Amino acid sequence: MVSKEFTPKKTICKVRLQIPAEWAEKEAAVVGDFNNWDPAANKLEKKNGGWETVLRLKPETEYKFRYFLDGERWENDDEADRYELNEYGSKDSILVIGDGN
User: Fold this and answer.
1) Residue 101 scores a pLDDT above 80
2) What residues contact 94, with CB distance under 8 A and at least 6 apart?
């Protein structure tokens, strides 16, 4: 699940990412161009019956991302704004952050 909430001044968008518990047994991370595709940068926590994290992203920007699960497999978000082919022949999830209006 992807949910977006802007701060009152609309300078940051808090993006909550949630995936089902069964997607990963030991660990889950969200990686993308917002963290230089670093699997250690944004780990998801196991809570509320799944895995989740909150990212603080800039408005009026698009971000490519994927989930890296159990240190071995990649998955896209089922609720991404869209998907784009990447250089590896698979697709990346795209997150579109508007201006908050």
Assistant:
1) no
2) 62, 63, 64, 65, 80, 81, 82, 83, 84
